[in-house]
């Protein structure tokens, strides 16, 4: 079995909308996009503006070789889909893209993405992209399995009695969180080679901690959790962000502690938080959960080594 690699790289760590300017450059201004490389499989989560830069790297490094990747959407909000029309591999006829994500209210994933690219909003329609693309809806009763040596993921059902994933598979479990406006959001847990990583963006905490998320993330090596707000912003009497579907940093540390994870990574940074403020949030969070790091563009988690490599 080839377990030479299990890495997560951050290509976009901003929430709501992109940010720019010298005071933002350390953390980075692109919206959500993660790249996971595990056992030879390339898995991308969300297509915020960060995916544009990832796509350029993919086409540059691949030469004329065909690109074969799986893209998972947590939900269809614009900060998680906006980069998709500008993803260079989609414009190569040789690329194979498997795109999986939730229904967006009453729309299928394909209808939602196609709708975001209709004229007059986009010069290119979804069906005009020359790559081979398969789009499919997934729910929390599904489980995505990448078998060693098989590029095609299998989408199984948790309740299928013959469902028995092997420890050597790259296994992606799904939790649907209701703590995000208009339809909720999918949380993903990726397990491989006795290591695991949970990506919980666009979730808001509950009193006493989000118990379903805590159970889902139990014992994980890395929990990547939304931490958009300071408590003062969340509780502001004039502009409270309560109910907007995002967490404060201490909601994130609360889940990390209760779930017994090894490391907590804070993400979906507010687009108005400058580098200094993100550093302050990171320092405050470390006092509650010492193994906390704020995600920055270019940062990489090496799950097999258990290390965090800053860009
Ligand atoms: Zn978002
Ligand atoms: Zn959202």
* Beta-strand share of residues: 25-35%
* Unreliable spans: none
Structural class: alpha/beta
Order of helices and strands: EEEHEHEHEEEEEEHEHHEHEEE
Note the total helix count. Answer: 7
Q: Assembly type of the shown chains? A: single chain
Number of domains: 1
From the N-terminal CA to the C-terminal CA, the straight-line distance is 29 Å
CATH class: Alpha Beta
Number of strands: 16
List cofactors, ions and other ligands. Answer: zinc ion
Helix content: 10-25%
Rg value: 18 Å
The CATH architecture term is: 4-Layer Sandwich
The largest beta-sheet arranges its strands as 6-5-4-3-2-1-15-16
Shape: globular
Could you describe the 3D structure shown?
The protein is 20% helix and 27% strand. With 311 residues, it is of the alpha/beta class. It has one domain: 4-Layer Sandwich (Metallo-beta-lactamase, Chain A), CATH 3.60.15. The chain has an eight-stranded mixed β-sheet with strand order 6-5-4-3-2-1-15-16. β13, α7 (275-288) and β14 (292-294) form a beta-alpha-beta unit. α4 packs across α6 and α6 (249-259) packs parallel to α7 (275-288). The chain starts with 5 loop residues before the first strand and ends with a strand. The structure holds zinc ion (2 copies).
SSE layout and pairings?
Layout: E1 6-12, E2 33-38, E3 41-45, H1 50-62, E4 68-72, H2 78-81, E5 96-101, H3 109-116, E6 132-137, E7 142-146, E8 154-157, E9 170-177, E10 185-192, E11 195-200, H4 211-217, E12 222-226, H5 231-234, H6 249-259, E13 263-267, H7 275-288, E14 292-294, E15 300-302, E16 307-309
Parallel strand pairs: 3-4, 4-5, 5-6, 11-12, 12-13, 13-14
Antiparallel strand pairs: 1-2, 1-15, 2-3, 7-8, 7-9, 9-10, 10-11, 15-16
Helix pairs in contact: 4-6, 6-7
This protein binds zinc ion (2 copies).
């Amino acid at each position: 079995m080839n377990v030479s690699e299990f890495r997560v790289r951050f290509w976009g760590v901003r929430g709501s909308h992109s940010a720019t300017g010298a005071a933002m450059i350390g953390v980075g201004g692109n919206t959500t996009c993660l790249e996971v490389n595990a056992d030879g499989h390339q898995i991308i989560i969300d297509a915020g503006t960060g995916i544009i830069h990832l796509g350029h790297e993919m086409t540059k490094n691949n030469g004329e070789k065909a690109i074969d990747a799986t893209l998972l959407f947590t939900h269809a909000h614009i900060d998680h889909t906006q980069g998709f029309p500008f993803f260079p591999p989609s414009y190569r006829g040789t690329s194979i893209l498997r795109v999986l994500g939730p229904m967006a209210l009453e729309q299928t994933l394909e209808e939602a993405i196609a709708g975001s690219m209709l004229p007059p909003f986009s010069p290119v329609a979804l069906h005009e992209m020359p790559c081979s693309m398969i789009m499919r809806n997934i729910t929390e009763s599904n489980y995505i399995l990448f078998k060693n040596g098989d590029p095609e993921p299998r989408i199984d059902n948790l309740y299928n009695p013959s469902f028995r994933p092997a420890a050597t598979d790259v296994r992606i479990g799904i939790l649907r969180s209701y703590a995000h406006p208009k339809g909720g959001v999918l949380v993903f847990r990726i397990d491989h080679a006795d290591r695991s990583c949970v990506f919980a963006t666009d979730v808001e905490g509950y009193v006493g901690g989000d118990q379903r998320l805590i159970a889902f993330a139990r014992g994980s090596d890395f929990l990547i959790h939304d931490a958009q707000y300071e408590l003062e912003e969340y509780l502001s009497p004039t502009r409270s962000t309560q109910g907007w579907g995002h967490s404060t940093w201490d909601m994130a540390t609360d889940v990390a502690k209760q779930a017994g994870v090894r490391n907590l990574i804070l993400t979906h940074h507010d687009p108005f938080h400058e580098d200094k403020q993100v550093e302050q949030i990171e320092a405050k969070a470390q006092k509650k959960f010492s193994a906390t790091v704020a995600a920055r563009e270019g940062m990489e988690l090496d799950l097999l080594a258990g290390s965090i490599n800053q860009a």
